[in-house]
Amino acid sequence: MTPTAAMQATSPASTLFPQTPSKGRVYNFSAGPACMPECVLEQIREELIDCRGGGIGLLELSHRGALYEALNNEAEAACRKAAGVGSDYAVFFMPGGATVQFGLLPLNFVGEGETATYIDTSIWSYKAYTEAARCRNVSVAFDGRAIKYARVPKKGEFAEPAGAKYLLYCQNNTVEGTTFWAPPETTLPLIGDATSDIFSRPWDFTKHAMVLAAGQKNLGASGASLIIARKDFIASATTKLPTILRFEDHANAGSRLNTPPTFAVRVMGLMAEWTLKVGGPTAIAKNNAYKANLIWDAVDNSGGFYSWPAEKWCRSHLNVCFKTPKADLDAKFVADAESHGLFGLLGHREAGGMRASIYNAFPVHGCELLAQFMGDFAKKNG
Ligand code: PMP
């Protein structure tokens, strides 16, 4: 499975996409919280003081008031449009990041004597599995740890235990730099963790019982998650849970079961609207492919100076990872890159090396500069 035509780069995408940061700002390759479009940041700055001319700032709005209700509904509508799902799906926001949802999934859907299963392709899917294993009977459907997370499973290369309540996978592996180019085909209810790839490419949400995505990357602020779930799936959850832990209750309450993380929800709404404004996941996928290929090409054209275990066919377009032959050279790379205005390149603490996280809003020119810098650094230190 490789990127479909819609996910391939053709040329530098339209100038609607951020090209360079404004004066005083740097290229921020952070994996998350990650860089955001400056037009969104400016709108937030304005709204913090006075939201839509009502004389009250965004952080001061009552979550039961008409204005916040409108912002919440607009956020849900923009996410629904970007996802392309119909009325059989609920689109809502919940407090907390992806790890909170990892904990809630088994509590909601796996009862006494029941099971769920996990495709383990990364630190994050392993986390989802181990959190569930603390309280419920769950299994590993694909053991990526055994192959050092170098790739995702090929078609059908995972177990589907009969009767499992769901099959979870991580759509884009933020730390390992690998990705699924299509949702795995399964007869089990499929749950996708889209925390690092939501709205980054055309994606068939309707193949899923649920897709969850924490904020902090393509959705802006951390502190909340977007959930896109089939209504009949979340209705199947046990009712023997406090409402605050049940997905369906949050959906039925229109993302306002209690006082929600209002700021994060508004930011997610603005990010979804920006996604649509620049041409939606289709346009974004082309821009992301162009950006990622610049850096992966710098790895491949370095004569072996840079390397990474991820297999080429499943390389991520959002997290490009690489290392030099020596750990002390990696440290020098990160320090020298900073002196060139390229920040946040240090790899995840468990994976080492470098990681360029280039989500939807990451400026094109930053990838060109990094590719150039990589070539120069390899020449000087190789
Ligand atoms: N899943 C993925 C794919 C992630 O990239 C991350 C965070 N980088 C998480 C889960 C964990 O998210 P959180 O910190 O919001 O719990």
Describe this structure in words.
With 382 residues, the chain is α/β, with parallel strands linked by helices. It folds into 2 domains: 135 residues, Aspartate Aminotransferase, domain 1 (Alpha-Beta Complex); 236 residues, Type I PLP-dependent aspartate aminotransferase-like (Major domain) (Aspartate Aminotransferase, domain 2). The chain is 35% helix and 14% strand. The chain is built from 10 helices and 13 strands. The strands form 4 sheets. The protein has a 7-stranded mixed beta sheet, with helices on both faces. Strands 1-12 form a two-stranded parallel sheet. Strand 3, helix 4 and strand 4 form a beta-alpha-beta unit. It is globular, with a radius of gyration of 21 Å. The two termini are 34 Å apart. The structure holds 4'-deoxy-4'-aminopyridoxal-5'-phosphate. 4'-deoxy-4'-aminopyridoxal-5'-phosphate binds next to helix 3.
How many helices? The count is 10
Question: What's the N-to-C terminus distance?
Answer: 34 Å
The oligomeric status of these chains comes to: single chain
Q: Could you report the average pLDDT, rounded to the nearest whole number?
A: 96
Shape summary:
globular
**Structural domains: how many:** 2
